Automatic annotation (TrEMBL), chain A:
GO terms for molecular function: protein-folding chaperone binding; unfolded protein binding. The lineage of its organism: Eukaryota, Metazoa, Chordata, Craniata, Vertebrata. Binds specifically to cytosolic chaperonin (c-CPN) and transfers target proteins to it. Binds to nascent polypeptide chain and promotes folding in an environment in which there are many competing pathways for nonnative proteins. CDD domains: Prefoldin_6 (cd23161). InterPro entries: PFD_beta-like, Prefoldin. One of its GO terms (cellular component) is prefoldin complex. This is Prefoldin subunit 6. One of its GO terms (biological process) is protein folding. Keywords: Chaperone, Coiled coil. Pfam families: Prefoldin_2 (PF01920). Belongs to the prefoldin subunit beta family.
TrEMBL record, chain B:
Binds specifically to cytosolic chaperonin (c-CPN) and transfers target proteins to it. Binds to nascent polypeptide chain and promotes folding in an environment in which there are many competing pathways for nonnative proteins. Represses the transcriptional activity of MYC. Belongs to the prefoldin subunit alpha family. CDD domains: Prefoldin_5. NCBIfam families: prefoldin subunit alpha (TIGR00293). PANTHER family: PREFOLDIN SUBUNIT 5. GO terms for biological process: protein folding; RNA polymerase I assembly; RNA polymerase II core complex assembly; RNA polymerase III assembly. This is Prefoldin subunit 5. GO terms for molecular function: unfolded protein binding. GO terms for cellular component: cytoplasm; prefoldin complex. Keywords: Chaperone.
Length: 126, 155
């Protein structure tokens, strides 16, 4: 009896640590997006300050390619939209994960109690 | 802080201290990085002073690699290409470029000023935690000594 519960407990703990790993992975991905958001915001601010006298170049591999200012602005704006969308997506994913971890924690603690009870019974019999 | 430090146990205080240590380390390294970038911008802004009309047409040595230079002449003293981030480079004149660097330096100064109070606060908190820990350790030692003193007389 106790052994079966112990096996189950072990499997659940493993699942839980895997979940925790996923959470931290998503967290760091979200953090990376945040950095990109800041950088792109800075670039957008700079581009907004430019006039027709300035020429914009885009670094593609090792070469600089001349680019239209409006086109560059559009690209950065689109990128910002995409990043914001991604951040929102990760936000919901993280919330979902947190809820699942919470539930899993409860399952784990009840299993632990069950295991202790079963162990106590076994010891009592001996 | 809502929780009274003296209510916490020694292990809890120890945990709090390590957490504070980590936060302090993170903030300190952030400030360090910001300062490094700021120095770079200051240097770049200073080097813009070389680009004036007096230096137009002068000869200079252009580094092709870190150990090899080729002679050249300074042709254009009005325009430079500035990296504004995410792979975008913008051609600006000297005045605009100086303004650009000034903006960056001011931005970084503001960021550093934002972090500094937080860092000081964490330092103060760590100090408080250490003090409470010391008091607790002393109390523990005293009670141990007291029980040792009592022990032999009883025996």
């Amino acid at each position: 009896m106790a052994e079966a519960i112990q096996k189950k407990l072990k499997a659940e703990v493993e699942k839980y640590t895997q979940m925790q790993k996923d959470v931290s992975k998503s967290m760091s991905a979200r953090q990376k997006l945040e950095t990109q958001l800041t950088e792109n915001n800075i670039v957008k601010e700079e581009l907004d300050l430019l006039g027709s006298t300035n020429t914009v170049y885009k670094l593609i591999g090792p070469v600089l390619v001349k680019q239209d200012l409006d086109e560059a602005k559009a690209t950065v704006t689109k990128r910002l939209e995409y990043i914001n969308g991604e951040i929102q997506r990760y936000e919901t994913v993280l919330k979902d994960m947190e809820k699942k971890s919470e539930q899993h924690r409860e399952v784990l603690s009840s299993l632990q109690q069950e295991f202790q009870r079963a162990q106590g019974l076994a010891v009592g019999k001996v | 802080m809502a929780v009274n430090l003296t209510d916490l146990s020694l292990p809890q205080l120890e945990g709090l201290k390590t957490q504070l240590d980590q936060e302090i380390e993170f903030l300190t390294s952030s400030i360090g990085q910001l300062k490094v970038v700021q120095t770079k911008y200051v240097e770049a802004k200073d080097s813009m002073n070389v680009l004036n009309k007096n230096n137009k047409g002068k000869e200079l040595l252009v580094p092709l690699t870190s150990s090899m230079y080729v002679p050249g002449t300074l042709n254009d003293v009005e325009h430079v290409l500035v990296d504004v981030g995410t792979g975008y480079y913008v051609e600006k004149n000297v005045g605009e470029t100086k303004a650009f660097f000034k903006r960056k330096i001011d931005f970084l100064t503001k960021q550093i000023e934002k972090i500094q109070p937080a860092l000081q606060e964490k330092h103060a908190m760590k100090q408080a935690v250490i003090e409470v820990m010391n008091v607790k350790i002393q109390q523990l030692q005293q009670s141990q000594q007291a029980s040792q003193m009592v022990g032999p007389t009883k025996a």
